[in-house]
Amino acid sequence: MTGLLKETDSGMPYRLYNVDHFNDAYRAQSFYGNIPLLIANNPQQPYNAGVFWLNASDTYVDFKREKQLMNAHFVSECGALEFFTFLGSSPLDIAANYGKTTGKMPMPQMFTLGYHQCRWDRDTQKDIEKISDKFHEHRIPCDCLWLDIEHTDGKRYFTWDKSMFPDPKAMIEELNKRGRNLVVIVDPHIKVDRNYPVYAQAIKNSTSRYSFPHRRPCRDEQGQDTLRGEVLA
Asked: Total domain count for the chain?
């Protein structure tokens, strides 16, 4: 979250915890991701300060104003007390020092900087083609269309639902002709189905002494069995 932060006297602190929820109860909480970097800026003073709270566990942040100051109070569920402080003459200096500490991302491809049409829905090939046609008809620049996980065969990633996408190759080629790209969303879990090649290969790797660790599925707390859980219906 960015901008002027309000006091949390109402009893609802800012929560740094990734969550995907449609309920308004999560309004004051981050949704898909969070970066625990706090920047203090005073236009009347020639300096700025920043704090990067290095903790990946569930974290709450309280803000309380005292006279002309806004105090921040971080509470994390677990982990060591570790944070970085930055000083600079502008918020840009703070951001630059933060980037030097964490590392910087590579330059993105040009199309990623344009307009992307992305929403959760059960879009079909006809829907995608129609949406692309409408952008073209109304001369609205659009560099990329997205498909959510419903495009798959029963949420088996790296597959297509042939009833919804009879010819995905032709669809992508048509988008490319108009200078558009297609992104398909893949979540970080694999459906348990022994007839699903991706799952079958993962299980095979888990029992092979010659497979690389990063090719094996996650284990349970005892490290004995493949980690399983309910993710999506």
From this structure: 2
Amino acid present at 183: V
- How far, CA to CA in Å, does 218 sit from each of 22, 98, 191, 226? 28, 31, 13, 6
Residue 226 covered by a domain: no
Residues 22 and 95 in one domain: yes
Greater confidence (26 vs 38) lies with 38
Beta strand 48-53 pairing with 83-88: antiparallel
Burial of 227: CB neighbours in 10 Å, binned 0-12, 13-18, 19+:
exposed
Cβ–Cβ under 8 Å, residues 183 and 227: no
Residue 136 lies in domain: 110-184
* Per-residue confidence (pLDDT) for residue 37, from 0 to 100: 92
- Around Cβ 111, how many Cβ atoms within 10 Å? 14
d(CA 119, CA 123): 9
Q: Scanning the structure block, which residue is given the tokens 């200078």? A: 179
Amino acid at the residue 207: T
Q: Is the residue at 169 inside a domain?
A: yes
DSSP output for 177-232: HTT-EEEE---S-----TTSHHHHHHHHHHH-TTS-GGGSPPB-TTSSSB------
Residue-wise pLDDT tens digits, 125-146: 999 999 999 999 999 999 999 9
Say if residue 89 is in the same domain as residue 146: no
Percentage of the chain lying above the pLDDT 70 cut: 80
CATH, residue 94:
2.60.40.1760
The structure tokens listed for 193 are 């189905």
162 and 84 part of one domain: no
